[in-house]
Design a protein that fits this description.
By secondary structure, this protein is mostly helical.
């Protein structure tokens, strides 16, 4: 790649990398490197050593991404202007700074204003500087954890921290003290629970009984009700505030509140799905289980709560109609008398045809109802009465809308399985339906020839006699080359049929000689790259054949010889893109296709400092993982991890999304000339 093209790619390609996309000469070109680091500061890692000591370039890099500081020359890591620019971009860049600059107030203040948790890495002296600590906890309350002992006991600092994040209260004062005075300070606690209600669990018993504090906590997080005093768990105002914020808070209310209609009604309105886990049975008692108003409210957003209603409500037509209009299958929870009600059943099947299975047997014989259902979803025919499974009008309507005739055409009456109009309609919907057709139709040459023209025809289900009929097989192979695999063995050796099939990309049916014929294999992979799987081992190592295959289907590269696949993949992975995915995903995990070997990111998301592990799948007997190697997070280390992955049995299929396909094609083309 020339300089002009490289500058263009830097501008246009978001995943351009000095490490992956240019040679060493361009990595030493100041104009190229400057353009690259302005777009992604971390590209500084791949610049020539002389340029990593160039202040203009390093300054541009750290302004774009403060973490680029780790790739700068040691001399510049000690440069105040450079480090200041880095921490203004990313506060945690101070980790890389020299001890001297970690004690520079101007730099530290800039760092904690960008990221309060950067306080962890600064000089101990500045952890006792109130201005700096206030700036840090204002940005991130959790930074209180890293303040000096003196400032952890400073009320102004604590208040600022808990206003930022209420749970920071846990770090106030001496966390080992049994009676931490700040846990009993109402002003501090009130500020904390307004930010994070569950911190109530850590405060003094006195404040857990303070209504003002408790109301603030449960309004922020309803489940904080768990930590309030027993007296306030009985306070209706407190409980109402809690369940309005989170209906599950009702779990922590006293028994009287659980039986209070206003409280339960508020919980239902907040989240009716709460009923689904049987909490209603546990938390709401007595007559509320039969309260129509409560259930009608719940059913409108979650019809399946009908299962928790009283027998009386399950037999209430208004309640059941409301339920089945929202979810037809709620019919299963209705009283048997309403399963016989035509209006209710029609409403149910209109919403979900599958609800017919829950209707009374008599209504399953009602042609009007069944027709309405199978027109919507033919699969529901299985729930209809046998009489209607023999009704041509009903069956035709069903097969035209079946989503999986493969599993449901079998429900059709045997007589209709021999009806050409019905079978034709079924096969048009799904070729697998032919499996259940009458044997006479499967052996009817004229009928089968008409079906072959259909796109989804499955040749496997015709009679054995027709599988040996050359005219039928030729028509089938011309329509779909995979049909040859179902033909009689004599016809599988027919050269004309084989040539048609392989040109269509179906190399699987070819014999060993044809799989080793380069012209035949090239024709096959140009039509279907995945046909490379069935080529001879010799041709899987032929770069011209592999190039044709991967140009058609990139993932066909997995079927190339091991040497070609390994060399191509390891040479052309976009390691920069792979690293970015790891940087941004704390749970990054990439298995080989057999899930035997993995590359795992171990660290926090949005963090460029972590470990990369290559390890085995969990042993079924010992539940242990074998770690093949551990690597750091630089691009060079990730390259080593990929090599380790390959050496321990991993394949590269999962890396294809990270490949530079343009370079893959260029590589293969170069070696075929």
């Amino acid at each position: 790649m020339g300089k002009k093209e490289a500058l263009k790619q830097i501008k246009e390609d978001d995943f351009f990398s000095l490490g992956d996309d240019v040679d060493e000469k361009l990595q030493g070109d100041k104009e190229i490197v400057l353009a690259a680091v302005k777009k992604d500061g971390l590209d500084l890692e791949h610049a020539d050593a002389n340029l990593r000591a160039d202040k203009e370039i390093v300054l541009a890099a750290v302004k774009q991404n403060g973490y680029a500081l780790e790739h700068a020359d040691a001399k510049l890591i000690a440069d105040k202007e450079i480090v200041l620019a880095a921490v203004k971009s990313n506060g945690n860049a101070i980790i890389v700074a020299t001890d001297k600059l970690k004690g520079d107030k101007k730099i530290v203040l800039a760092a904690v204003k960008k990221n309060g948790l950067a306080l962890e890495y600064v000089d101990e002296k500045l952890k006792n500087d109130k201005e700096i600590v206030l700036a840090a906890v204002k940005k991130s309350g959790t930074a209180l954890l890293y303040a000096s002992k003196k400032l952890k006991a400073d009320k102004e600092v604590i208040l600022t921290a808990v206003k930022s994040y209420g749970d920071a209260l846990r770090y106030a004062g001496d966390i080992l003290e049994a009676d931490n005075k700040f846990f009993a300070d109402k002003e501090i606690v009130l500020a904390a629970v307004k930010s994070y209600g569950p911190v109530l669990q850590h405060v003094s018993e006195k404040l857990k009984a303070d209504k003002e504090v408790v109301l603030a906590a449960v309004k922020q997080e309803g489940r904080a009700l768990e930590y309030v005093s027993e007296k306030l768990k009985k306070d209706k105002e407190v409980v109402l505030a809690a369940v309005k914020q989170d209906s599950y808070a009702l779990e922590h209310a006293d028994e009287k509140s659980k039986a209070d209609k206003e409280v339960v009604f508020a919980a239902v309105k907040q989240n009716s799905k709460y009923f689904m886990q049987n909490e209603f049975q546990n938390y709401a008692v007595g007559k509320l289980k039969a309260d129509k108003e409560i259930f009608l409210t719940a059913i409108k957003s979650n019809a399946s709560v009908l299962q928790h209603a009283s027998d009386k409500l399950q037999g209430d037509k208004e309640v059941v109609l409301t339920a089945v209009k929202h979810d037809g299958c709620a019919l299963q929870y209705a009283d048997d008398s309403l399963k016989k009600d035509k209006e209710v059943v029609l409403a149910a099947v209109k919403q979900d045809g599958g609800s017919l299975q829950y209707a009374d047997k008599k209504l399953k014989t009602d042609k009007k109802i069944v027709l309405a259902v199978v027109k919507q979803n033919g699969d529901i025919l299985e729930y209809a009465d046998d009489k209607l499974k023999a009704d041509k009008e009903v069956v035709l309507a069903a097969v035209k809308s079946m989503t999986s005739p493969y599993g449901n055409f079998d429900d059709v009456d045997e007589k209709l399985k021999g009806d050409k109009e019905v079978v034709l309609a079924a096969v048009k919907q799904d070729g697998f339906a032919l499996e259940y057709a009458d044997k006479k139709l499967k052996n009817d040459k004229e009928f089968i020839l008409s079906l072959i023209k259909l796109d989804n025809f499955i040749f496997d289900y015709v009679s054995e006699k027709l599988k040996g009929d050359r005219e039928v097989v030729l028509a089938a192979v011309k329509q779909n080359t995979s049909a040859l695999q179902y033909a009689d063995d004599k016809l599988k050796a027919d050269k004309e049929l084989l040539l048609i099939a392989t040109k269509g990309g179906n190399l699987e049916v070819a014999n060993a000689a044809m799989r080793n014929d380069k012209s035949i294999v090239l024709a096959a992979v140009k039509s279907n790259g995945y046909a490379l799987e069935h080529a001879s081992e010799k041709l899987k190592g032929d770069k011209e054949v592999v190039l044709a295959a991967v140009k058609k289907n990139g993932q066909a590269l997995q079927y190339a010889s091991d040497n070609i696949e390994k060399n191509i993949v390891t040479s052309h992975i976009k390691y920069k893109k792979l690293k970015k995915d790891m940087d941004n995903d704390a749970d990054f995990l990439l298995w080989d296709s057999d899930e035997k070997v993995s590359i795992t990111h171990s660290g926090n998301g949005n963090n460029t400092n972590y470990r990369v592990s290559v390890e085995s799948n969990q042993d079924e007997e010992t539940s242990e993982y074998e770690v093949y190697g551990e690597f750091a997070s630089s691009i060079n280390e990730i390259k080593s991890a990929v090599e380790c992955f390959w050496e321990n049995g991993g394949d590269f299929l999962q890396f294809y999304e990270f490949l530079n396909w343009e370079k893959v094609f260029m590589d293969l083309e170069t070696n075929t000339k």
